[in-house]
Amino acid sequence: MRSLRRNKRTIRISNVVENEFTYDEFGNKLPVYAPPFVYKIVIADSKSNSQYQPYGKDISYDKELITHDMNCPIHRNSKIWIKDIEYTVEGIKEELNVKSYAIKSISKQ
User: Fold this and answer.
1) SS3 label, residue 6
2) pTM of the shown model
3) Backbone φ and ψ of 7, nearest 5°
4) Residue 6 and which of 30, 40, 41, 105 are 20 to 30 A apart at CA?
5) What is the pLDDT of residues 12-34, one digit of tens each?
């Protein structure tokens, strides 16, 4: 079954700008992120399970994003916001017609 429009929720995504870096006070190179943009995607409130590991061993995640858009703009280094809570991408699972993203919260709730 394809992703129904009524099941999609709004998120904000910010991707890394290629070949642009800043430096912290210790001289470490940090990526520069583009301004966030709005995207609609299905959000599943599934958590990681020790028995079922679709994203690989020892991947811990809080939610799962699911889309049938194979040109989805989410990447491994993307930052994602759902209702003002910031998430990072922990794993990507790509099948024939579906892309799934495991995301983990980095904001304090």
Assistant:
1) helix
2) 0.84
3) -90, -10
4) 105
5) 999 999 889 999 999 999 999 99
Q: Which residues contact 57 (CB under 8 A, 6 or more apart)?
A: none
Query: Per this entry, what is the length of the chain?
Result: 109
Average pLDDT, the chain: 87
Tokens describing residue 1? 């079954």
Write a three-state SS string for 16-67: EEEEEEEECCCCCEEEEECCCEEEEEEEECCCCCCCCCCCCCCCCCCEEEEE
Residue 80: phi and psi, rounded to 5, are -130, 140
**Cβ atoms within 10 Å of 4's Cβ, excluding its own:** 8
CATH code at position 94: 2.40.10
Q: Residue 68's domain spans which residues? A: 5-105
